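Q: Protein A?
A:
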Amino acid sequence: MQNNQINNKKRHMILALLFLGWCLSYLDRMAMNVGIVEIAKDFNLSPSVMGIVLSSFFAGYALMQLPGGWLADKFGSRKVIAIAILFWSLFTVLTGMAWSLMSMIIIRFMFGLGEGGYPAASSKAIADVFPKAERTSAQTIMMSSNSLGGVIAPLIATPLLVWIGWQNLFIAIGILGIFVAALLWYYLNPKNMQVEKADEETAQKASFKDVLKLRTSWQLAIMWFGVSTVVWGLISWMPPYLVDVRGLDLMSMGMLTSIPALAGAVGVIIGGQLIKSLLSGKEKYLSIVSFIIMIVSLYLLFNAPSVSLVITYQAICMFFHGPIVATIFGLPHKIFSKNVIGSTFGMINLGGMIGAFLAPMIMGYLIEVFNGLYVSAFMYIIVCAVLGIFASVGLNSKNNLSSEVNVVTSNDKAI
């Protein structure tokens, strides 16, 4: 009993640190989205060029998803996590030292490469530490850090931006990252990452080649593409929209954008509990309904007559993105053995990051082409959300997913 309590404490500590690592990564990203208004003034950037700067991070981030997952499976999550945080912290500091538009784009691309190794490695750590029955809950708690980071980041980054300038803001956040990397390296030691033998999986193992063959893997990747397009489209362009179109000052904008992020964090946690209990095996229907509500909220958002309604509709949209995120990142823990979890999440996250890469750039181009009108940009993310619905429609139930894995592995053995 006492041994189990100790192991649970270790697991909870590791989960808290992984959560902290995600919050830090989100703070780094949000610092750019909050600071882009001032950066655009200093570098005299047009909306389309602003989109390129914002998307340069996601180019590197997307490219690193598959290699990051493979590295986590091969060399272990501890090494990949520590190196990733140190690498992206270095380039966060360098962001504050950027001297030209081209240097900013290159630095943000390299920053994306560093941060791109963390998602799959952190999911791999969940599989290494937690018994199979607890992984879905642990994963959704960890992923709620994305939205919670969206609450905390503007509250931290916006005042610092006003007080010390965007250059010093990035330098300060980069230094903080070095301390977080040291903490994770200390606690993510092999002794703390051993699951009891009684909880070891006896299920048939699948290779990464099997993961690529499964239709479900591609469906989850497309769903994540749709969600990421909406989320990062809003995160990237709502600050300029609120300032330029709705007439808010920087401080007010930063405070208000934390409200939808909080709604998103709550949505992820509630979604995780739903797919664990009441709606287990019915993730398809939960995702379809959530996508539809997101789309309706987006349409109402850009037609809203007041700022308060804009934030309200954005908060509804972000809340209902939560159950979809819980589905996307919860199902793999149910159906795949932990030897390919890193690679699996690398593949799924690649789909999401392609959407996140394209959204700021395409929306910036559309805003510029239509002379500062944001309607076309919002319509783009709505179309991508509709694509997510089509992927959700074909999603299998939990029982069929397990059968699908067994069919693939059996066919490979027969060959």
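Q: Protein B?
A:
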Amino acid sequence: MNVTISPSSVRGTVRAPPSKSYTHRAILAAGYADGATVRDALWSADTKATARAVELFGGDVERLENGTLEIDGFDGRPDVPADVINCENSGTTMRLVTAAAALADGTSVLTGDESLRSRPQGPLLEAIADLGGEAYSTRRNGQAPLVVTGPIAGTEVSIPGDVSSQYITALLMAGAVTEAGIEIDLETELKSAPYIDITLEVLEAFGVEARHTENGFTVEGAQSYSPVGGEYAVPGDFSSISYPLAAGAIASGEGLRIEGANPSAQGDTAIVDVVDRMGADVEWDRDAGTIDVSSASLSGIEVSVEDTPDLLPTIATLGAVADGDTHVTNAEHVRYKETDRVSAMARELGKMGVETTEEQDSLTIHGSESTLEGATVDGCDDHRIIMALALAGLVADGETTIEGADHVDVSFPGFFEVLEDVGVTLERQ
């Protein structure tokens, strides 16, 4: 599907979709449990992949009409899957499920789409091998397809912290149901640290204790997953909130309200501060879980995305509208997402007349030297690139057509319907 965006103003109220990060972890945590109810879950292409994996491990996931998931778990002992685990485009699914597969007494095979088969998995495979399992890439390049044989038995492992925090999340979640637990020593500085805080928060909600150590993290073994009252509720997603928030900052003279913005461990809550620092009128009522935002003249700032890699596309679009330079730093790990998001945003915004300077670990957007003009751009099969480019289309001179726009289903199903509801003129082809 291609979507053409016409210049538009936004106004009204938007409800934040549930958090993708929390939903992934909650579905798998319920799988590790005897069972649990997950309320307010995001049902998207990525989270469906995690649900299918739980079912292949011997669990069952039923989605009710109100969006609640009723999950029968495999009680910490996954079956050997009867089929290949297809993680589709979901890197979170592949990393978390790879560690779960290492608990099974047998061999599991994991794969995904072309994009996912290009993403690095090597450090997690090496960690599983160090813990007594067997794990390898069929192409011997550290990328899927992966073959994993368990069960793991070791108790201590070292792993880099600057490639993906999902490796640590995967090992912590699986380690809780091993006999002896797992101690993780970080070989390098940890990036995307708030995502580990999300993991620790979800584990605690499911009755599992894991904690920071001087050199990394540890989780005791022989624990059971069991949320209080058998239920867990997923909070709103600040990665997704970044798009209507930015839309309000650049294209809402009348003001836009975002509901479901309750505080949590999500690092991407930083987008509220980013928009405020750039000069938009923004007010976050944390108690009510609402954000009110309206547009104003924006100025470029410097932003580190070391802990918030998913915000880079949104910030890049804000920088294209702002006066002066917006310098996004500590961004090298953003290159290892669904696509190389640093290069993708530089290239596609460039088609719209935006001047950028790209370095290995940074992206600078020269707002004062740019003119946003409607163009045909490539969504790169990446939900965050698509949504960020849609924002640029709101204030570009002329129509902007985004190719491959259906990939928003990965994290924000109904994204374009939400835009229409708040006044955006668009056409699907």
